[in-house]
Amino acid sequence: AGGPPSNGTTAAQTTVAGATGATTKRRVEDRGAFDKRLRFSVRQTESAYRYRDIVVKKQDGFTHILLSTKSSENNTLNPEVMKEIQGAMATAASDDSKLVLLSAVGSVFCCGLDFLSFIRRLTDDRKKESVRMSDSLRTFVNTFIQFKKPVVAAVNGPALGLGAAILPLCDIVWANEKAWFQTPLTYGQTPDACSSFTFPRIMGVASANELLLSGRKLTAQEACSKGLVSQVLWPGTFTQEVLRIKELVAVDAAVLQESKALVRDTSRGALEQANERECEALKRVWGSSQGTDSILQYLQRRTELY
């Protein structure tokens, strides 16, 4: 009696080989999925470890930076928070992110500079602290001016002071219909984030002066009609609508950067000069007793702004 037919052996071997191959492939796929989850987990853990006042999520094709301040109230910006945002943007500039999405956790986008901690420091050493804050602000704003990849801002709620002034340095601004915008500069602060240059250019001198000098409050629709906001989104679907950023991510990275450069590069020098002038003016204002008094008055009246 001979062995089984050779074609039977071949069929069995093929079946075993096929099963083994499928198992191996499945293991590789499972391992790949596990590695992807692990890398994501490590990135999230690294983000939590590296940052206290922001959350950074490395998504597929873009970096999502969310303001979530623990060292200040209402996502206000102090030198420490600004440094964290700069660090996250520096990472996004050098990795494979095609763009940056800037948003916030909670119902407030950004209420400008952290005057509460600033006034305490000013009381201790007015000259030193006014220089420190103006230097921090200069570097922070220059980070946006010089950033080569597109920045999309998703404004989920109120944007005050620096929180509103920084928006023209972003490339696309989507706003929740419930958001509102105000630059309360009558309370101890001259324009910042190049708003003395960008606001008149965007909305005309008359409208810019009304906003910068009188502190007029703009609704999201008004901000959109004046060119400060690209589009107003419905509150109930705001988070889902922001996901349309994936359409931008689908565009070639080089095309995005070249397109931004064509729009932005002609005004970069003027923006840097405006930033320098504004920071020098703020240093003078913050270094004066009148400036300190104005900030105190602003803090006392701040509850009326919310």
TrEMBL record:
A GO CC term assigned to this protein in UniProt: nucleus
Q: Does the keyword Disulfide bond apply?
A: no
Locate the region Disordered.
1-24
Claim: Nucleotide-binding is one of the keywords in the record: no
- Sequence ranges of Low complexity compositional bias: 8-23
What's the chief localization of this chain?
nucleus
Q: Where in the cell is it found?
A: Nucleus
Q: Name one Pfam family in it.
A: ECH_1
MF terms (GO), sorted A to Z:
transcription corepressor activity
Q: Which UniProt keywords apply?
A: Nucleus
Write down what this protein is called: Chromodomain Y-linked 1
